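for the record, two folds in this file. i put them one after another cuz i was lazy. first one right below, seq on top, structure tokens after. the second one comes after a little note so u can tell where it starts
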Amino acid sequence: MVATPIGNLGDITLRAVETLKAADIVAAEDTRNTRGLLSHLGISARLVALHEHNEKRGAARVVEWIREGKVVALVTDAGTPGISDPGAEVVAAVRAAGLRVVPVPGASALTAALSASGLAFEGCVFAGFLPARGAPRREKLAALAASPWAIVLFEAPHRVAETLADLHQALGERDVVIAREITKKFETLERVPLARAAQWVAEAPERTRGEFVLVVEGREPSRAEAADPIKVLETLLAELPVKQAVALAVKLTGARRNELYEAALKMKNGVRDGFPKNRP
């Protein structure tokens, strides 16, 4: 599993270059992109396509090649394979076959954005890309809102303003670091309150171009300490139907489903009673 540059070609590691030179086969998300990288590095290798649409079939081929004694290097268009990119199914198949998987670490937009965010955090949740729309998106946002941790997201340029607005609605008053085009010529990292983040993006056309990482600060400790099932349920009910909100609240707090369901119905009817806090 070979990490490749996310923008600046100088970020390729010596170990990655050596691994790609030694590989019998380079399995690439897009052979055209990888051919350009290999050409820049002066590497001639057998390239095969392995992307999200053929990963399951490709994983079986990778297993066969390794069993034949071949060294296979897996790369994606940029960054680390398997991190919001193809690769996880290949790793699972190779491990299931009892064969060895070797990580060759390198550039990662996730860690780059975190390291330069300036946000204080004791832990973070990496949420990848949010679902594009509908109930899955609302459920993911509601779950993130119930977490005390800093949140890291990837986002496409055509959805970044909408996502920032949705994050503000779900998470409330927090700061976000908008990291755009990390390691590239027009790299930008801007810390703004979520309340005006969508507006900040809309103020200049170039701010909606490129690849984005969003780092949202965690909740303040005073707000995150109490894992009150009712407060969690209230947050979830603002975005989700009763059944989904209750199921997610049970997972997040460990409270009993029947009691949470009863409380949810009362909330929907405008009634709140004394549900026991932190009850297992």
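(here's the note) second protein begins now
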Amino acid sequence: MEVTITSENFASLKNGELPLVVDFWATWCGPCRMLSPIIAELAEEYEGKLVVGKCDVEENEDLALEFGIRNIPTILFFKNGEMVDKMVGAQSKAKLVEKFNVLI
């Protein structure tokens, strides 16, 4: 299941036991809406292996600024508290699966 990423819970999730995938998005973003069902599906498929979260850039501007998010959707991949990869723009499920498998 997807987790809602906020400024308040980000640090604990990033430094948690499982790798973290964060989808930075906004409600008005067309490509974000296209990607959303894929992210939800992968969150279910990878439950227990990694944490998949969504971060609304308008509600959490500080996180978007911290990571230099200029285009959405942007997906960041964290392992052991460090950002290890980044994807910008809508992605296919196959490309995301490749990145998820490298992360775990």
